[in-house]
Amino acid sequence: MQPQQQQQQQSLPPSSNPFKRPLRLLMITIFCSLSYIFGSYSKSSNFTPSQLQHHNSLHCSHLNFTTHSHVSPPLHFEPLHRLPLPQEPVENLSFCSANFTNYLPCHDPYRERRFSVIRFSHRERHCPENDEKVRCLIPRPKGYKRPFPWPKSRDVAWFKNVPFKGLAQYKKAQNWVRVEGDRLVFPGGGTSFPKGVKGYIQEIKKVLPLKSGNIRTALDVGCGVASFGAFLMDYNILTLSMAPRDIHEAQVQFALERGIPAILGVLSTYRLPFPSRSFDMAHCSRCLVPWTEYGGLYLLEIDRVLRPGGYWILSGPPINWRFNYNGWQREPKDLENEQMRLEDLARRLCWKKIAERGPFAVWQKPTNHLHCTQKIKTWKSPQICPKPDPDSAWYIPMDSCITPLPNVNDIREISGGGLEKWPKRLNAVPPRVKTGTIEGITIKSFNEDNQLWKRRVSYYGVILKSLSDGKYRNIMDMNAALGGFASAMDKYRVWVMNVVPSVAKMNTLGIVYERGLIGTYMNWCEAFSTYPRTYDLVHAYGVFSMYKDK
Predict the structure, then answer these.
(1) How many other C-beta atoms lie within 10 A of the C-beta of residue 207?
(2) How far is CA 14 from the centre of its chain?
(3) Strand, helix or coil at 234?
């Protein structure tokens, strides 16, 4: 181009413009300066043109910055290793038929018919075999809209997103949910609190220190539409609501549509997918669990997942039976005997009943087992479990024994270590880290992981504008490790389901719970226990390499 331009300039007649010569000199000066700068850059680089082209092709998203020695280098978001792409062509997936809109692979009502109804085992996870797995995309329901942002979603949802009227009709008198035009309205009612969950929680607040920061994680068994967990958020209590897929239609789907943490699950034959000592509080509001049956197996499981000093709240039969036996259509003597058996079982677990107030009763788990080990022999209580790993809980059968607490030397000590109050708990070093319970995880590595994820999430916030706009609410971390990602996300109005894969080398879910976060175990070769379209953002770090040869 340059010789052609010179030739064109020579062919033009001389100009009478007096400013043309200085202008030409200025342009030549600028051109020479640019040539010098680009020439210096190419000499200082270690790459030849061909090498530079090859480097950029491998790392197309990497930015090269020139930094001084006293400035920290930019964050490196490139993958640390690469997996080869499959050689066979990738199958283009089509959409499933409309009847798959709310398909639950591991909670399929048609598959569950193959399994026994004894102890509700048909309600547990029963995943399809390889030849039964669906290879199509789940379609949205007709008329689906983006859910309302939090906190509006707590009270209202689009009906066409969760098009089920059964609960609104079946639980109409209890104010679970109403259909009003094109919307679902959640007035905050429940089986044990038809006049509203706020008043119910206010009564609990008179017994338990809900605002103290000592109670942070809660488990709601048989959650309905999760109004209990929804309004506990006013106290900074993070509640994981759990219910099976049953005759109450999509109660867990309603909860997640509202932006409330929830998961499909049932007390049956396997342990709940949580480590021991996870929850500060557990709750059951007429959840229809036979607590005293099967040797007290289900209350023993609640004991396993409760933290030392944790609380169990029960409302509904048999509590307050003298005033409610007519409404429950039960014989008073049967209800009285049921409560006596329940009281006796709780006593043999070394629990202390601290209140029975109106519709509910509250028990507290001991902070250690020093006194309990002596009482067990006297009361003919369930024995202490001999198994060494109380945190293992993925397809592990329940035990009809008391899960042992970590040893202490003094009756005033808290087994496993005490926790900080919320919100300090989030970034404080968890007891499982302090005591070196998990080999390879130290206080130093925990703090470094915390700082790493703070930097990464700050970078995510630049890219994902919807985080600060409130358009994301339900988030899942497929490989949570120490919970660093969820901790860093706490500055946004979101909650995170922290998943620790069952094949992970280190079981870190107990650490996640000690930080005041929630999560579950999972094998990613199977489908997650949730409904379609229930998460706004799924975060994956190191997941695919973990399952490379699985």
Answers:
(1) 16
(2) 78
(3) helix
CA distance 324 to 304: 31
> Tokens 């005293």 correspond to what residue?
292
pLDDT digits (tens, 9 = 90+) for 366-419: 999 998 877 777 777 888 999 779 999 999 999 999 999 999 999 999 999 999
| Tokens describing residue 153 | 């979603």
How many H-runs (helices) and E-runs (strands) does the chain carry?
A: 17, 14
Q: What type of residue is 101?
A: T
Q: 273-320: per-residue pLDDT in tens?
A: 999 999 999 999 999 899 999 999 999 999 999 999 999 999 999 999
CA-CA-CA-CA dihedral for 119, 122, 128, 134, to nearest 10 = -150
- Strand order of the β-sheet with 156-158 is 156-158, 183-185, 178-180
**Contact assessment for residue 136 and residue 96, using Cβ atoms and an 8 Å cutoff:** yes
In this structure, what token pair is assigned to residue 214? 């000592």
pLDDT attached to residue 246? 73
- Residues 312, 299: Cα–Cα separation, whole Å: 10
> Do the Cβ atoms of 277 and 417 come closer than 8 Å?
no
Q: Which two tokens stand for residue 483?
A: 């919970």
Q: CA dist 88 to 134, 226, 547, Å?
A: 20, 45, 19
Cβ atoms 478, 500 nearer than 8 A: no
CA distance to 375, 488, 499, 533, per residue, from 496 (Å): 40, 11, 9, 15
Rounded to the nearest angstrom, the gap between the alpha carbon of residue 52 and the centroid of all alpha carbons in its chain is: 43
First to last CA, the chain: 59
Residue 228, both tokens? 């209990």
Measured CA to CA, the distance from residue 545 to residue 532 in angstroms comes to: 25
Neighbours of 294 (CB within 10 A): 14
Question: Taking Cα atoms as reference points, which of 320, 224, 495, 492 lies closest to residue 328?
Answer: 320
How far apart are alpha carbons 419 and 426 in whole angstroms?
A: 10
Those residues whose C-beta lies under 8 Å from the C-beta of residue 22, and which sit 6 or more positions away, are none
Express as a percent the part of the chain with pLDDT over 90.
71
337: its two tokens? 């005997």
Q: Is the pLDDT of residue 428 over 90?
A: yes
Task: Read off the tokens for 302.
Answer: 């609640």
* 156-158 vs 238-243, strand pairing mode: unpaired
Pair 479, 499: CB distance under 8 Å? yes
- Which tokens sit at 154? 């707590």
Task: Decide if 470 contacts 494 (C-beta within 8 A).
Answer: no
